[in-house]
Amino acid sequence: MVNRKELNPEASPQAAFGARLRSSRETHRWTQEELSTRMGVSSGHISAVETGRKPPTLRFSRSADAVFELEGSVDTFERAWREIRHGALLEGFPEYVGYEGRAAEIRVYEVGVIPGLLQTPAYTSALVASEVKRGAITDGQARERTDLIAERQAALGRTPPPLIFVVLDEGCIRRPMGEPAVMAEQLACLAEFAEQPHTVLQVAEFSMGDRRPFNLPITVLTLPDRSLMSYAESAQRGHLERDGKFVLPMLTAYHQLQAEATSQAASVAVINQIRKGLL
């Protein structure tokens, strides 16, 4: 083919996206003009994305998923787009965020820090500023993480909202983050979160000891079709699990955690007590 640019999908996630778009198009025996008509974009835009001269957008990716009938599948163009956009994040997390944004129920257990879904902007800023100072992330990666948390929180405002169950290790509410005013505001936000009709907030106190079923943060999602998936991470990597035989035991352990954790009323009382000590 004249002027056909050879693609190297190994060069970058963006190059892999473009190569896959071309491969999918050619599998259907569509020209760039035919695909552009189906997706509602110009043929020049298709060419630019295929050759990596222009990055795909979320809208473009979702349109490609619709055209190639990939919506709801495991390996979507939207997933690839998230890997491009959030390349600095832990493996598996960008894909997890996509599922989180449409989950019917979200169950979170966090250790050491307030989970992103509940963080105030000031708390997030203090957290990422500390990581930048240590050289763990760059300024650009800090902005990326801050923007992503805001997007995730905004997704919770959908109708109907998801049911959200949160169990915080006691260290989350006692570990100072930023100035006292930052932590006081964050604790007040937690108390407000607990008052919502679709949320449950509990604290797993240190005294639980060996009755605590998890040693690392864990999230279990229930999707609208009632299927389950879990996400867990260590310091260096994350893992998204879809196999029910592995997720169901995590859900059982989460229920055991909730049974052992302090009640919501008592948890909020402890949170407010700590907050008053900061004022």
For the record, the CATH class of the largest domain is Alpha Beta
Q: What is the domain total for the residues?
A: 2
Order of helices and strands: HHHHHHEHHEHHEEEEHH
Quote the CATH topology of the largest domain.
Endonuclease, Chain A
CATH architecture tag of the largest domain: 2-Layer Sandwich
Instruction: Characterize the biggest β-sheet.
Output: 6 strands, mixed
The name of the CATH superfamily of the largest domain reads: Endonuclease Chain A
Number of helices in the DSSP assignment = 12
The number of distinct β-strands equals 6
CA distance, first residue to last residue: 71 Å
Based on secondary structure, the structural category is: alpha/beta
Proportion of helical residues: 40-55%
pLDDT average, as an integer? 88
Strand order of the largest sheet: 3-2-1-4-5-6
- Indicate the low-confidence ranges by residue numbers: none
